[in-house]
Structures are given as structure tokens and as C-alpha cells.
Q: What sequence folds into this?
């Protein structure tokens, strides 16, 4: 097939990422080592993964009006002609995030405020979504979620269950983590029911749940040493959306997306460690 058109709807945060020997305890002073800035968050990292493909990519997001927002915008406006950024501007400071990665590769995330999300009332080219082969939604606005449902395939993060309830639409896939209580609600918690509920579980098999059926998809082995786990789930989400845009069944799309999540475990910076997406 021709290169697909894929959209991401959601937030991009100004992330300062660094390594520390341990997580701070009360009264501690902890120095971050090997620090760097990246445009992160659920929308930003899925978008970065999708940019490592030949697909036509559209990001619908919102930015503040300060230096953090300008730094984020400079980094996300890449590959003009193939990658398109549609950003609403808010008269507020852009949210900043600090991610601390410990010696075991586990991350602690500190946020300064709620993520900035686009809304259907923003003057953005929302009609593009109807022509998309797939959309990954990690926004918060129910009306923009309804607009995203016009795409051929729709993937929604389980963290946006409130938006799903308000929009009253059935996505093709709801994606969550079995180990995260904010994301591991059972299939019957969703009304209307999605086509499939996909629950990742680290190095264990991915669960694909449908009414009356369940399947397990083997996950790739984790590296011998995990250097960082920030962004693994978001990279998997971007890759899953890419393979669904190519028309693959959910189980096969999960199998192919697995290595993209696992690749991030090999380094501290998820964008540096993401691997290229290749059409099936």
C-alpha cells in the first residue's frame, strides 16, 4: 500500500531527563547526571516513534507561550512535507517535567502542571483526521475524540477513559498497561465496548481481550540490563498505530510493535533508542 496517513492527538511536554544513583528521600540533595531535554509525554514520544517511518504524520497538540514551549516546538517541527504539526497556543507557561532514572533503569516522573491538550474548538485542520488510516489519541477533549473516530483505525490510551465515556464512541483498540491501576480496567468497564483491549505487561506476553475471547502475544525478551524504561509504552503505542494503519490484525500489530517498546530499554533517552518503523 501507499505510505499511510497517521495522526497523533495529544500532549507534548518539556522533559528534562537525567540519571541519579537513587530516588530522593526526605532531606536529600540529588544531582541529575547525563541530563538532556526532549519533547516527551504520551503524545510526544508516540509522535517521535512514528516520525521514524515513511508515513505522512500529523500531530495535533497545544503549546504554551514561553521558552519551554518554543523549545518543544523547535524540536517537533521536523521533516517538513511529510510531518505536519498542528498546534493551538495557550496563554500559559508550557508544562515542564523532570524524569529521574535510577541505577536499575526505573523512572520517577515529576510534573509541574496538567498537560496542554488540543480541543475541537481550536482552529486546527481537524478534517484531516477523517482521511487518516489510523489515529493515536492521548488527548482529553471528548469532541476531538469523536472527530478522531472518523479515521479508519482508532487507538486510544486507557488513561483517557474519562474522555472515552464522555465521547461515547468505540475505538478499535484501547491500549493500557496491566501493571498500572490507571490503565488496567477490564474490558467490561468500557461502554461502548472497543474492538479490542490491549494490555502490555513488561517482558510478559501482551493480552488482547475481546468480548468472549482472549489471546496472548509473546513479548520480545528484555535486554540483559535495562538502562531506562521511560517511553517504552509510548513507543509501543506509536508502533502499534503504525502497523494497524497498514491493515494488520491487532495481534500481529502487537507482535511487530513489541520490539519498538523493548528497544527503548537499552538507553536512557527514548528518542535516541527508538528504532525505525518499516512497512510490513
A:
Amino acid at each position: 500500500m501507499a505510505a499511510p496517513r497517521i495522526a497523533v492527538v495529544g500532549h507534548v511536554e518539556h522533559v528534562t531527563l537525567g540519571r541519579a544513583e537513587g530516588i530522593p528521600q526526605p532531606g536529600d540533595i540529588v544531582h541529575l547526571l547525563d541530563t538532556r531535554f526532549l519533547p516527551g509525554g504520551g503524545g510526544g514520544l508516540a509522535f517521535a516513534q512514528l516520525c521514524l517511518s515513511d508515513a505522512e504524520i500529523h500531530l495535533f497538540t497545544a503549546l504554551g507561550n514561553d521558552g519551554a514551549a518554543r523549545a518543544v516546538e523547535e524540536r517537533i517541527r521536523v521533516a517538513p512535507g511529510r510531518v505536519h504539526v498542528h498546534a493551538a497556543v495557550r496563554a500559559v507557561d508550557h508544562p515542564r517535567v523532570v524524569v529521574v532514572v535510577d541505577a536499575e533503569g526505573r523512572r520517577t516522573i515529576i510534573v509541574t502542571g496538567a498537560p496542554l491538550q488540543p480541543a475541537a474548538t481550536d482552529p486546527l485542520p481537524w478534517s484531516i483526521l477523517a482521511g487518516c488510516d489510523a489515529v493515536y489519541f492521548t488527548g482529553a477533549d471528548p469532541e476531538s475524540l469523536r472527530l478522531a473516530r472518523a479515521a479508519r483505525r482508532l487507538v486510544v490510551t486507557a488513561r483517557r477513559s474519562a474522555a472515552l465515556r464522555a465521547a461515547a464512541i468505540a475505538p478499535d483498540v484501547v491500549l493500557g498497561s496491566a501493571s498500572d491501576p490507571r490503565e488496567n480496567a477490564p474490558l467490561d468497564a468500557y461502554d461502548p465496548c472497543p474492538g479490542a483491549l490491549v494490555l502490555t505487561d513488561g517482558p510478559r506476553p501482551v493480552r488482547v481481550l475481546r468480548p468472549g475471547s482472549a489471546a496472548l502475544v509473546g513479548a520480545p525478551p528484555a535486554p540483559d540490563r535495562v538502562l531506562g524504561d521511560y517511553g517504552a509504552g509510548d513507543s509501543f503505542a506509536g508502533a502499534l498505530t503504525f502497523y494497524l494503519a497498514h491493515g494488520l490484525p491487532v495481534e500481529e500489530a502487537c507482535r511487530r510493535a513489541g520490539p519498538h517498546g523493548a528497544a527503548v530499554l537499552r538507553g536512557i533517552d527514548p528518542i535516541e533508542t527508538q528504532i525505525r518503523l518499516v512497512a510490513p
In short: The radius of gyration is 18 Å. The first helix runs from residue 41 to 51.
